[in-house]
Structures are given as C-alpha cells and as structure tokens.
Design brief:
The protein has helices at about 65-70, 115-120, 155-160; strands at about 5-10, 15, 35, 50-55, 60-65, 75-80, 105-115, 130-140, 145-155, 165-170, 170-175, 185, 200-205, 220-225, 225-230, 240-245, 250, 255-260, 270-275, 280-285, 285, 295-305, 310-320, 345-350, 350, 365. By secondary structure, it is mainly beta. The strands form 7 sheets. The chain has a 5-stranded mixed sheet with strand order 5-4-13-8-9. Strand 19 (about 270-275) and strand 20 form a beta hairpin. The site of the ligand Nc1nc2c(c(=O)[nH]1)N[C@H]1C(S)=C(S)[C@@H](COP(=O)(O)O)O[C@H]1N2 has 18 residues, from strand 3 and strand 8. Molybdenum atom binds near residues 35, 82, 83 and 84.
Length: about 375
C-alpha cells in the first residue's frame, strides 16, 4: 500500500497523517502531519545555520550545529496534535485550515533539553517567558506586514526537563518540512508551541504578545472578572476511532473497533465505547505502551446480533482525571476540538469487505 500524507492545502503544505492506515504506536516521519503557516525556509544548511540565545540573559550565545549536538541529549515519546485538528467536523463553521481528524501523530523526539541552554546563557531575575522565533516569514490576511513565526512559553514549561530543542524525529534528522535542523518540542502541548526552523531564543520580563498567541491560537474562558482570553497550551484528553472507517459496513457477529487516545501531558487511564449513541459505555482494552505524553492504542470487540444503523463513540479518560466531553465547548472557537465524535456505522447481515487491497471475495457471508 502506498500511503502518503493527505493534502489539505498545497502551498504552504498543510497535510494530515492518514489515520485510516495507522497500525503502529509510532507514526512514520513521511506520514506525520504537516502544519505550515508560511512557505518553508529552503536555504538552511548545517554549515550556515546558527541559534541565538539572547534577551534578558547574563551571556548571550550564538551556537553552531556542532555545538548544539555536542550537548547531552534526551529522548521523549510524545503525541503532537494541531490545535485546529477536527475543525471541519464543527457544526458552527470556523475560519482556518479545514482539518479532518488527522492533524495528529506520535513520534520519538530527541534533542537537547532547553533548560541546559538557558542555564549556559544564565537567565536574569525577572524573566517570565521565553520567546522562540522560526526562520519562516510571511503575512496573514489580518496582518499584512511580514512576520516570522514566533511563540513564547511560560518559564516553568521552558525549564521542564522534557522540553527539548529537537533535532531527531524517530531517530532521523528532522525532515525540512518538520523544522530542519532544529525545532522546539514541547511534549503534551498543542503543536503550535513547538516552533520549527528555530533561529532565536529570547528571555523576556514581559508576556509576549505575538500574533500566534493573541490574534490566533487563543480560547475564551470565563472568570470572576468576565471573559478572559487564554493562550492555547496543553492538549486535553481525546480519542479517535480508526476502525471501522468512515462509511464502513459491518456484519453481524464480532466486529473489532480500533483507535488511539491521548491525554496531553498525562497518560491515558481508560477508553470506553458506546454503541448506542452515548446511552451506555463499556471499557475498551488498551494495547501496547501507556505513558505520559503518548497516545495509547485501544480495541473493543463488539458483538452485534441485529442488523441496523448504529452510532459508535469512544470516550477517553486521562490519569489526571480528565474525561473527554461529548460536545464541543463553544468558548474554544475553532481550536481545542476534543469531543467524542459520533461515528455512524451500518451493520448488515452480510459483511462487505472495504479493505482496498483485499484479494479475497468481496462478500463474506455470516453463518448466524
Ligand atoms: N516556524 C514554524 N513553526 C511551527 C509552525 C509554523 O508554521 N512555523 N506551525 C506550528 C503548528 S500550528 C503546528 S501544529 C506544528 C506542526 O508541526 P509539524 O508540521 O512538524 O507536524 O508546528 C508548529 N511550529
Ligand atoms: Mo497547529
């Protein structure tokens, strides 16, 4: 089978992981979704690339590729999802890339813990955030002046031992489209935090007000003082049904449901399945590794006696006690879309095999 990313927009590339074909815990690099706001920088080489560390530090640094890769490295397995993943499923249409379910993947990320570099530079007292700037430049409809892609992290997350300056993905040097040669990688957080093609890091004493965390990538929350704008951060708990596929027709008897679930910074504690449109829930089996930051695969053997139209749903809970909601929170707008999405399936007395490459007969009769 020749699997490839599913293009959503071509220039710049925005493309999905082909979730329908996911069988493994780790997503291969060439299938891992891509989210680009601007054209990808093309002139970066390991020789001409530098990383600057500056702002509110004792000792500003400018590091080469060899200097970075000589530092101690760390490896973290983590799921990364785009904050707009699933946007096309919202009933109230939202602006932005019309993602299906596949702006998510799981990989092994290797790099230098960011705190080691910040330690070398020496943060001055009063630092509240660290700003990360990519080499890619462009404009947006509501921001016609060209700007670099940039985001900040609160100091505590920047100093977390697992926050990496990543240069390997699944053991390979980063592919150009995933941020070669170096990107920030913030495990447990939406992908927007993980700035690609990193060229500068700056400590600041003021909260950063960049476009990608004020105009875009924010959600609303109500507090005692009314509505508050919150910058998108950690991924909440979520699950996806991979099989049965969209519009797949099942047969009576035993049907295997299969999917993935993730809990942002937490591990997945449990996944439940409803086959009656959320009236009752039964626990699925978790398969393979279960760890903080990582998605977990699950399966559920569904015994169906009666043909008919069913609504299948999955609902994950994290070790942190979060449970996936059944509806989208309108305060999230076009972001943070993690509700249990109903999947209608039809069960017939006769099973139709929809595997594209099935060589067996296209009809299989159930003996019941
Ligand atoms: N420099 C830069 N970094 C970026 C982006 C970008 O457009 N430019 N997109 C962000 C978003 S919104 C996401 S979801 C992830 C996607 O990473 P990937 O393309 O490697 O999957 O990168 C983030 N880092
Ligand atoms: Mo994103």
């Amino acid at each position: 089978m020749h699997e490839q990313r599913k293009m959503v927009t071509a220039a710049p590339e925005n493309s999905e992981t082909p979730l329908d074909d996911v069988r493994s815990w780790v997503t291969p690099n060439r299938l891992f979704f891509v989210r680009n706001h601007f054209a990808m920088p093309t002139a970066i080489t390991l020789e001409n690339w530098r990383l600057r560390v500056g702002g509110c530090v004792q000792k500003p640094l400018e590091l080469t590729w060899d200097e970075i890769t000589a530092l101690p490295e760390r490896t973290v397995f983590a799921t990364m999802e785009c904050a707009g993943n699933g946007r096309s499923f919202l009933s109230a249409k939202q602006p932005g890339v019309p993602w299906g379910a596949g702006a998510v993947g799981h990989a092994e990320w290797t790099g230098v813990p960011l705190h080691l570099l910040l330690q070398k530079a020496g943060l001055k007292p009063g630092t509240v955030e660290i700003i990360f700037e990519g080499q890619d430049v462009g404009a947006e409809a509501d921001h016609p002046q060209p700007m670099n892609f940039a985001r900040s992290l609160p100091l505590d997350k920047a100093l977390d031992a697992d926050t990496l300056l990543a240069y390997r993905m699944n053991g390979e040097l980063l592919e150009p489209i995933h941020g070669f040669p170096l990107r920030l990688f913030v495990p447990g957080w939406y992908g927007v935090a993980s700035v690609k093609w990193l060229r500068s890091i700056e400590a600041t004493t003021q909260p950063f007000r960049g476009y990608f965390q004020t105009v875009k990538y924010t959600i609303q929350r109500s507090s005692g003082r009314g509505k508050e704008t919150v910058v998108i951060g950690p991924m909440p708990v979520k699950s996806e049904i991979i099989r049965p596929r969209e519009s797949e027709i099942l047969g009576i008897g035993t049907n295997r449901l299969f999917g993935v679930a993730w809990g942002g910074p937490d591990a997945v504690a449990r996944v439940e399945i409803s086959v009656d449109g959320s009236r009752s829930w039964n626990e699925a089996q978790l398969i393979g590794p279960r760890a903080a930051y990582s998605w977990t695969m699950w399966e559920y053997l569904w015994e169906v006696a009666e043909p008919g139209d069913y609504t299948v749903m999955s609902r994950a809970a994290s070790t942190g006690g979060q449970v996936q909601p059944t509806a989208h929170d309108p305060q999230n707008g076009g972001y943070q879309i993690h509700f249990s999405r109903p999947r209608p399936v039809r069960v017939e007395r006769t099973r139709r095999i929809v595997e594209q490459h099935a060589t067996v007969d296209m009809l299989q009769y159930d003996m019941n």
